[in-house]
Amino acid sequence: MTTAHRDFLAIPDFSSAELESLFVLADSMRTGTYTKKPLAGQTLAMIFMKASTRTRVSFEVGTYQLGGHALFLSPRDVQLGRGEPISDTAKVLSRYVNGIMIRTFAHADVEALAKDATIPVINGLTDLLHPCQVLADVLTVRQQLGGIAGRKVAWIGDGNNMANSWINAAYVLGFELSLACPEGYDPDAALIARARTRSKVSVVRDPAEAANGADVVTTDVWASMGQEEEQAVRERAFRGFCVDSALMARAAKNAIFLHCLPAHRGEEVTADVIDGPQSCVWDEAENRLHIQKAIMAVLMGGEKL
Ligand code: CP
Ligand code: NVA
């Protein structure tokens, strides 16, 4: 338990050189050349205020594989769910465990937790950002296409936490990003403005325009967790934003399709695309494990970048 620590709340918490090393470290974990146990004797607390399959399992398994132990904390079981302040939770958990992974609604809650914790905090998804997922996505692009520099990424659909994290990735890593979003569903304006200081980031209304010549086509659900009651309204707003084979045909010949999952076949993507030859969604899901192990090895395990 240390006060000299760093958090991972958003992709720009790492420099581009650090991200490069992080991807190499994650690849060494994927191939099995990395055999160290930097989390031996350590515990990760995992706070989930929203549901999860991939994040929960990959963090728990990843912690175990690095020699540590992970605790699953749901709002039904911990006092945070009954209104105990986030800052009190941060101070108490800091006395027991060595790192905290949190998935919640307001991004400000994660920032508040990080401010009052004396141990590393990792963002496992907020309404604003999903940084671990987009790093796994970039790792997948590197594995499939050899790198992301000079590539064009097309985001199709909601300007949500995934879209915002792609914008942050473009800011740090410098690739072209075209986001097609219906009016009223744009990504975060401040994140777009910052990314544009370094990278070509456009927001368009026509999915075909975004997909034209893209090396990566990616999308996400139309109603994120917490927006379930907007499903019907969103289904109308997002008509025409389904990634189908006609849209994929506009992309580069060897383009890949990514989706963070869970997916709704027949809504944001057709079954023939997500289950087809250009889809890399299973590698993408697997890469959550490798990139998060790399992040924990650095933040909690003393691994250098
Ligand atoms: N992609 C992702 O974060 O999945 P889960 O919601 O299952 O964790
Ligand atoms: N945008 C989705 C991502 C799920 C992993 C959500 O927030 O529900």
* Unreliable sequence segments: none
Name of the CATH first level of the largest domain: Alpha Beta
Question: Percent of residues in helical segments?
Answer: 40-55%
Q: DSSP helix count?
A: 12
The biggest sheet amounts to: 5 strands, parallel
Task: Write a structural description.
There is one protein chain. The two termini are 21 Å apart. This protein has helices at 16-31, 54-65, 86-96, 107-116, 131-145, 161-173, 189-196, 207-211, 231-237, 245-250, 271-274, 281-299, and strands at residues 43-48, 69-73, 99-103, 121-123, 152-156, 176-180, 201-204, 216-219, 256-259. 41% of the residues lie in helices and 13% in strands. It is built from 12 helices and 9 strands. The chain folds into 2 domains: 11-130 and 288-299, Aspartate/ornithine carbamoyltransferase (Rossmann fold, 3-Layer(aba) Sandwich), CATH 3.40.50; 132-285, 3-Layer(aba) Sandwich (Rossmann fold), CATH 3.40.50.1370. It is an alpha/beta fold. It has a 5-stranded parallel beta sheet with strand order 7-6-5-8-9. A 4-stranded parallel beta sheet has the order 2-1-3-4, with helices on both faces. The longest helix is centred in the last third of the chain and has 19 residues, at 281-299. Helix 1 (16-31) crosses helix 12 (281-299), helix 3 packs across helix 4 (107-116) and helix 5 crosses helix 12 (281-299). Bound molecules: phosphoric acid mono(formamide)ester (CP) and norvaline. Phosphoric acid mono(formamide)ester binds at residues 52-55, 125, 133, 260-261.
